[in-house]
Design a protein that fits this description.
Distance between the termini: 25 Å
Number of strands: 4
Strand order of the largest sheet: 1-2-3-4
Order of helices and strands: HHEHEHHHHHEHEHH
């Protein structure tokens, strides 16, 4: 509801919109043992939900780590994936190689270090500030509510107990190298990439490389937008997304 708060209503007149919280995120309960469901396992839960709802073909939209999930679903369930839309996803875009990756890796370490910087809501807001190019009091209030919800539901502790590969970039990217990169050339779904030009964790050079690896993929880069491109450029983002969904 946070990420897609201004998108769901904009798309609803044109398509059936299903926007689930992942297991252990938002208002979805976690596993009984308190374990963390990482991005390699989330697609199975979403597929089960779509099966329950009777959805046989879908446009899969994934932002950030959701880009990894959407790509894996397109790889594992090609019969389901009618269209594929990846949004500002460093978890899906390939590395550039050598020193070209130093900048976004440093930004990621700073922003996603929940073991240290998220002890207070003020620290959490400061950590997340680079992800929003055009922040507003309403966005800050929403992020504050989400922080308190994550603390109350034990989700912050759940994430902190997660495996080391969630915070170690070499291990984190190894999953992508194994589960995403070798299969990009075989993706049949019509694919669009929507990117924020000022995203410090996923520079547009990575988006360009990803687009070149997926047959027929189109790339739209929105200026004056960071990682949360759907908040920074809401009207433009919704217009592009609507074109992708209805084309």
């Amino acid at each position: 509801m946070a990420t897609w708060r201004d998108t769901i209503a904009a798309l609803a007149p044109y398509a059936r919109v299903i926007a689930p919280d992942n297991v252990g995120f938002g208002n979805s309960d976690g596993l009984p043992d308190g374990g963390y469901v990482d991005r390699t396992r989330r697609g199975a839960y979403i597929k089960a939900l779509l099966n329950e709802l009777g959805v046989e073909r879908a446009t899969l939209v994934g932002h950030s780590e959701g880009g990894f999930v959407a790509l894996r679903m397109a790889i594992e369930y090609p019969e389901l994936s009618q269209n594929l839309i990846i949004v500002s996803s460093g978890s899906a875009a390939p590395v550039l190689g050598g020193a070209l990756d130093d900048g976004w890796r440093a930004a990621g370490r700073s922003i996603y270090d929940y073991s240290a910087g998220a002890e207070t809501v003020e620290g959490f807001l400061e950590m997340n500030a680079p992800l929003v190019h055009n922040s507003t009091p309403a966005i800050k209030a929403m992020l504050s509510r989400n922080y308190h919800l994550a603390v109350e539901r034990g989700q912050l502790d759940m994430f902190r107990r997660s495996a080391a590969e969630e915070s170690d970039f070499a291990a984190y990217m190894a999953k992508q190298t194994e589960l995403i990169d070798p299969f990009l050339a075989g993706i049949d779904a019509r694919t669009w990439l929507i990117w924020g030009a000022q995203d410090p964790t996923a520079p547009t050079e990575r988006a360009i490389k990803l687009a070149r690896l997926i047959p027929g993929a189109d790339l739209c880069v929105l200026s004056k937008a960071s990682h949360m491109v759907m908040w920074d450029r809401t009207e433009a983002f919704n217009a592009v997304l609507r074109c992708c969904v209805t084309s």
